Amino acid sequence: MKNLIQSVLLLAMLMSTTGAEEFIYYAQVGEKVTLKPPGVHPQKYVYWYFNGRDLAWRNTMGKTWTSQEPRWKDRLSLLSDDSLIINNLEQEDFTTIFKFEVYGGPSEYTYKLLKLTVNSPSPLLPGDSLSLSCNAVTQGPNNLKIHWLNPQGVKMRPEQLHARATSQDNGQWTCVVTNARQTHVANVFVTVIDLSPAPLSPQYTSKSRPLTVPCSLPPYISWDQIKAKGMQEVHWQFIPEPGSSPQRLFSLSLEDPLTWKPELTRGLRLVQDPTKINLSLTRDQGSEEDRGDYVCTLEFKNVALTRTVHVKVLQITSSPGTELISGQQLNLTCSLGHPLPSDLRLKWFPPKKSSLSSSSLGSGGHPTHLTIPEVGRGDGGKWRCELWQNDTRLTSAEITLKIEPKLSVWMLVVICSVTVIVILILILVFILYQHRQRKMRHLGRRLCQCKTPKPKGFYRT
Q1: Are 112 and 23 in contact (CB under 8 A)?
Q2: pTM of the complete model
């Protein structure tokens, strides 16, 4: 009896080692799959078959071969660990039985491909219905677990997803299918048409720096896709102060070719032509009037996509002006037109010969206002004020001062003397002129003493 039991156990072991072991792989049409055999088989003949026909092999010398039949040519690769890569999967591949065998080995392994399909939604607008489905063909008991990963990698439980699209949904979604042994994934790219995010912080400029107001569409979005969604208008607006009426700067004509129509440009221009999907505005040199909010808008039938960019202008003002005389008091102010937030600081850079140096202002943030009781010739030149946030310089502003020297006592005496001489010369000229006028009148009276003078000549008496 004991021998009979041992024989049965040995037969069962032999059957289990010689029987074919089956692996299930999920994949998508048009993608690739990697079939991996268990274990490593160095210096062994290994074979891959499909429906009983040779597909690929490796000999003991490491030489490999893959089928050159039209169906498989240029689609197969045999890796060093004997894994088989099948590229560009076709519909027929899902009805094929693949087998892996080690020559002289105890067993063979069977591989079946089951189709995994996901729907690919057309480009969406924020607020559109987003519907994603992931379907896996099953064989035998359905022990599959399916979930989604959104573009941020967050796990979403339902196999079928229904939600309202937002800009966060744009990107690659991954359907993850897990069976008893392996995990399989299927990717689908969801396109949500939206403008690129606006800068989190304001754009800073000054009279000494250029200005760029960013607005663009992601590079994977085309104008054809935008037009297909029923785009009605694209325009830029400017709001000088909160609560004030918007001023329209540019509008985009949707007729071919796409062209911008300027309305109230304020000296701004478009960075690129509209076909490049870059809608940014720019100017070579900032201006005090640039301060305000710029609104970039794409209007569709049921939704308007907008991005607002806040522009701040750093400005230096000098009192009493930019032309001073040595000894005058100088007041300089560098500001954004309002008190600085706590995370911003200023740095002053006076001229090299100035009586006020950067080091004397301290290593931290410098004051908004500077006062020099008596300016000297060394204070003339270029003053620069920089705006910093942590270790980042945001912008800078510059002003040039002209300092004239004081007038000395000797110079005053000379000026007064010259003035007196000029006045005396003018008086002398006037006296001479009057004297000449009187002399001319006296001479005229002497030449004419009678009312009817006789002509000269001889007369009879």
Answers
A1: yes
A2: 0.69
Q: What residues contact residue 392 under an 8 Å CB cut-off, 6+ apart?
A: none
CA 221 to CA 379: how far, in whole Å? 55
Please name the residue that has the structure tokens 């004991």.
2
Average pLDDT, the chain: 83
Beta-sheet pairing, 323-325 with 392-404: parallel
Region for residue 58 given its phi and psi (left: phi exceeds 0; alpha: psi -120 to 50; beta: otherwise): beta
∠ at Cα 142 (138, 143), nearest 5°?
120
Concatenate the DSSP letters of all residues of 203-223 into one string: EEEETTS-EEE--B--TT--H
- The CA-atom distances, in angstroms, between 39 and each of 25, 42, 82, 100, 113 are 18, 10, 9, 12, 21
- Strand 160-164 to 129-136 pairing: antiparallel
Tell me if 43 sits within 8 A of 23, measured CB to CB. no
C-alpha–C-alpha distance, residues 16 and 5, integer Å: 17
Residues of the chain with pLDDT below 50 are 1-19, 408, 459, 461
Radius of gyration, alpha carbons of the chain: 46
The whole-angstrom separation of Cα 380 and Cα 374 is 12
| CB-based contact 148:175 (threshold 8 Å) | yes
Q: What are phi and psi of 363, to 5 degrees?
A: -85, -15
**Number of other residues whose CB lies within 10 A of the CB of residue 143:** 9
Hey, what amino acid is at 265? T
Which of 223, 218, 138, 216 has the alpha carbon at shortest distance from 184? 138
